[in-house]
Amino acid sequence: MKAIFDDPQMSFQMLRALGGTVGGISDVGECLSTGYRITEGDFESWYSEWNKTAERLRGFAEDCAAAGHDVSAREAYSRASNYYRLAEFYLHGTPDDPRILELYDKSKSCFEESLKRQTYPYQVVEIPYEGATLPGIFSTVDDSRTPRPTLILQTGFDGTIEELQTYAAAAVARGINCMTFEGPGQGRVIRKQGLHFRPDWEKVVTPILDFTISLPEVRQDKVALMGISFGGYLAPRACAFDHRIAACIANGGVYSFMGSKLPPGMAMEDMISYIKSDPDGFSKSMWEMADKNLDLKWGIENGMFTFGAPTAADWWLMASEYTMKDVADKITCPTLIIDSEADKSFPGEAKKLHDALTCPKTWMLFTAEEGAEEHCQIGAGYISGERIFNWLEEALADA
Questions:
Q1: Which domains does the chain have, with CATH numbers?
Q2: E-state strands within the chain
Q3: Is 114 a catalytic residue?
Q4: Would the pTM of this model clear 0.85, i.e. be above it?
Q5: Is the dihedral angle over the CA atoms 223, 208, 194, 100 positive or is it negative?
Q6: What average pLDDT score do residues 225-250 get?
Q7: How many CA atoms lie within 13 A of 93 on its CB side?
Q8: Looking at 229, 283, 345, 384, which residue is catalytic?
Q9: By CB count within 10 A, which of 106, 143, 250, 390 is most buried?
């Protein structure tokens, strides 16, 4: 599926921007007009044009707020927040670039202004985690404090809690409370706290679950966990070790973070040995390839940023530890494994994870016929949400 750009990486991110219209975090005309101004393959141009659009929308939102037009202010602030996120997206190749925190702060500020005008109840929370805290937003169906089924929701390799709020609204509309959070390597936690991804993700989810089930609005026996993108590894990993979770959703499923990145015919063990034998040479070859491959360039830069890896070789070795081998069969709860027909991020990984499961499991494939073939069904938010939440409603009812 092509969106303005010939380059697959920029096309996908533009489709992601357009797909935000479903949750009110973007508008078609604003995205297209911004995209037409961007020089293909130029990260600086991407930053500059999205920043211009974000600045304009923030100014409009502020005018709406000052005039007492709260609904319009909520909508405009929400889009401005997402456009600042987009402006920051390709800047991670220089981790100390001051624009990363500047744009993050602007995105967060606009999101907070939008959220405080939201119509459903919510709590912004700080969840204790190993001497620090992790940010969360607990959205509820109403303010009655009635215990209800609850979804814990997390993003993956490059998302933020702000982007997740559209899923939270979809859950609340179906009578399900939603706790969104950011862990190490994500959002504020990497940018402000400097905490990087870790493969033993159960150490992250368990304190999130402890906090969530302590809330009076939560049915302790009906709590599900959903992970998006790289979260399709993180969520199942957590469920393998914390059996209080009643249902798991992996969109899309990831058996091994680097499994689909191996050269044809090469085993993971051989790849690791090869990298360790000449890490400098491997890093050099990776960067040479990245000069001709924008998707690889972004992947290395964001990987080093979020994993805390000093070199491309270090990042590859660290990422190879993220595997469900010898772990998948420990999951006991009903699990939904989702795949998309043209997934380019983790091709084939969802099927590997599904086949490795021994728990009650469901396979859900999204297709080109549905317009939902891209990674995580980007650009097809309605059919994606409808099919996934239908499964979740039934799973929680049976829990």
A1: 8-115 (1.20.1440.110), 122-257+322-398 (3.40.50.1820), 260-319 (no CATH)
A2: 122-129, 132-139, 148-154, 177-181, 218-228, 247-251, 335-340, 361-366
A3: no
A4: yes
A5: positive
A6: 98
A7: 15
A8: 229
A9: 250
